[in-house]
Amino acid sequence: MIDTHCHLYLDQFSDDLDQVLNRAADEGVSHIFLPAIDLASLPKMDELSHPEISFHKMAGIHPTSVNDGKGTDEETLMELCSRDDFVAVGETGLDYYWDESYKQEQQQSLQMHCRVAKAVQKPIVLHNRDSTADLLDVIEAEQDGSLSGVWHSFTGTADEGKRAIDLGLKLGVGGIFTFRNANVDQAVAQLPLEDMIIETDAPYLAPHPKRGKRNEPSFVIHTAARLAEVMNLSIEEVERVTDRNALSLFRMS
Length: 253
Fold this sequence. Notes:
Layout: E1 2-3, H1 17-26, E2 31-34, H2 42-45, E3 54-59, H3 63-67, H4 74-81, E4 86-95, H5 103-120, E5 124-129, H6 132-142, E6 149-151, H7 158-166, E7 169-173, H8 175-178, H9 184-188, E8 196-198, H10 220-231, H11 235-249
Parallel strand pairs: 1-2, 2-3, 3-4, 4-5, 5-6, 6-7, 7-8
Helix pairs in contact: 4-5, 5-6, 10-11
């Protein structure tokens, strides 16, 4: 299995990181993708290692980090994302939940990330909270046929998911999808598995039945199991297809 979105470098894992990684390997997690929150995230990613797991770095500025003044300039982001050891641009996106007064700054940051992603020909990883219409409008305006990426932690409707797919995005299926009261599973059931990848967003949003606990990569099995139920497929088939999708999106196959 592949965890396509995980913040293992955060302090929530500082006390038991080795055990967390061993549990992930025991569940068959072979790849973990590491989106940045800001540029200070990057050195911490290099400290991660495990003999059975490959780690893949991204560079970008989370939209709430934009609110906090932790941006970057396009030249710096371009230089980082051009490097072979960075596989994607992000995470970026829009988040209007906490504060709507930074909409313009967040949109400008997202546009910059899109330009960099197209220039370096690497996928973009998109955060979205209470901002779906604006997020997809920006992607539509930036899409010239060369932009690929993922709507991470997909929580949209079936129609929003279809629009995202039509715009060249994959859908990141994570913990919220497993929440019985979220209704995300009803939307996902109407969308093609060929356009989905699986994630944890650890340490956040642990899936049912681990909801409320610190999330970790080994919990991706619970999201895969629920996705298999919704799609009426075996968990092995869900793992096969979503792994293939992830490796293709991140240019590893």
